[in-house]
Amino acid sequence: MANLANQRVANEFREYRGQPKWSDQELQAHWRAQDYQQPAPYQPAEPALNPWPAPPPPKAAVALTQLQKDFLASTIPDLENAENTAFAGGPGYWTGKKFLGKGGLGMVALWQYDGPAGDQNQKYRQVAVKEATGDAARHMNSDNNIHRELTKTKSQHINHCLIRGRTVDPQAENLHPDWKGKVKRLILEYCPLGDVRQLIERFQKLGRPFKETTLWKIFECLVDGISVMETGYELSYPSPTYEPSRRDRRNWDPIIHFDMKPGNICKIGDFGLAEFDWNFLLNGDAQHDDIVWPQILLFRDNGTPGYFVPEQFTEEWEFRNYKNSNIAGKYSYATNVWGIGCILYQLVLLTHGAPDPKVPFTPSWNLNRDIPKGRTFGLPLHGQSRYYSRQLTDLVQECLYEVPQHRPGLEDLKTRVRSGFLDALQVDPIPDLWMDFEPPPPGRADGRPYCRGVVKKTGKSCENAGLHEHGGYCGLHKKQRSQQAQQTPQPQARRNPLRNAR
Which tens digits make up the pLDDT trace of 224-234? Predict the structure, then answer.
């Protein structure tokens, strides 16, 4: 018999899949009353090539709430502590400068060091402070524990905590006593280039797609990041075989992110909804069913609507044989691979729209020369993008397979991503300009944005107004930028050491 929690979750995901909600009577009649039957394959018609996305209109400034203003004006104990040599702490040395964003569990802002310039102990000038909002039930103990494990890896593809999160003193900070023993805030690396969502917006304004080499490098960074989450190490390429080599850190528990999306990625960060892999920890032992399945069920709504994985939203949860499903609750590294697929899907299409969970389909074409293994999600990319190779778009589509076991493994991903980058480099060796990745400067007094260019003689930022139709540059710097792109030296084509291995 279904309980109220099952009804809420079942109807939440029925609506997510585009199905009508069940009434109380329908829920009692159908909930796990029969075994699941695989539906017939669906093959979509070839879509017409959509026009390139028009630049979005400039966003209106959103006023900060009083809570956010108070956050920026607050003092952060870890930064105010003069004995904290990691931050050269001291009263008034650090100031909240910019509100960066908010999520379901808290908010994040930029703090900047304004202390003595010659302080030899000063190591960081900018940090991101993430603070939980609400009551003590929204503490960051789990987030802190996962960050503590990931800090051991020293990976450049993970957004690290700069110091271990500390439990708060409720009395000193005028908090409810329930906060005793809880972590309320984390001090994190600050990423000045912003996140992938902001990067997509910059290229929308430029009116052109990313170079394929850029997407392959982003792809590789994400693969390295989830490899660290799975094994504690990045995959390496020992010579002379150039085959990716996997190492597993001793006593390492794999981590599933559950919230991989463009807004959470500069490096892989925001582990507030991440969990250790229970399927791995219990090794599929049937005697632990009474422990593992209730816990796995709790993970169903971990994440952001639009970015749930098939392991969460599949209708197979609603059937009697759900424990035998190849999808329902089968969380693993492949869950993180789905997250990579969602991010690359949006980078390829230069859109903020994630793959539609309502329309799974079986491709009518081969994916990277292989017969499709099953259903996948999103638009058929090979019919949508004339800017990228099938090598790239097919691999993105494979990352979005419905069945986790059908998605590429870590070693396979690393090999194919590296090979794809080298192939794309031979076709177009001119990279995207670095200035296109940089965030625009603040606006002028007249409300118009500054030009993104730099005056050659002085090395200072241009004070002319940036034009929307020129991608944020004034007319002069738009012309200089075009000339710079044409004069970029072309590197010699390099031999691909992975070609013979394929």
Answer: 999 999 999 99
